[in-house]
Design brief:
Length: 148
């Protein structure tokens, strides 16, 4: 698993947090994020930046990117926040089918969008991201051991 793409809508809340969590856990992997309707060039939401800083992860330099065909095809794994985003990516980039899943696939949860919501909603979204990432890391580790 050398390249992971994390996707949400605007690429300023959920996917930058997911990217930060994965990048810390997989420092040798290429982890990027993008949005289906990205607020291109915008920084990560200040609440997201603050919550990630509490975990020792700096996403203050993040700038939103629009998901592209190239991003999807270069990724070994694409993680979305919900099944609707997964479906939209699969329809737009059918060549990436089989590599697109929800970040909460194994915890059977979508990650709600905290954009313009209270800090408590951000904390819920981040907790779900952390739980989903933990499960993905277990699978990635199993794959790495199997291929070693």
């Amino acid at each position: 698993m050398n390249s992971i793409l994390v996707v949400c809508e605007g690429n300023i809340c959920r996917s930058p947090m997911g990217q930060g969590l994965l990048q810390r856990a997989l420092p040798r992997a290429r982890v990027v994020s993008g949005g289906l309707g990205a607020l291109v060039g915008s920084p990560a939401d200040e609440t997201a930046v603050r919550l990630m800083a509490e975990r020792g992860i700096d996403i203050s330099g993040h700038r939103a990117l629009q998901v592209s065909r190239d991003m999807c095809l270069r990724a070994d794994l694409v993680l979305t926040m919900d099944n609707d985003q997964r479906r939209r990516l699969e329809e737009s980039y059918p060549q990436a089918c089989g590599r697109i899943f929800r970040v909460g696939e194994f915890i059977k949860q979508d990650v709600p969008d905290p954009y313009r919501q209270s800090e408590s909603v951000f904390r819920i979204s981040l907790a779900l991201l952390e739980a989903g990432v933990r499960e993905w890391l277990k699978r990635i580790e199993q794959l790495a051991r199997a291929s070693a």
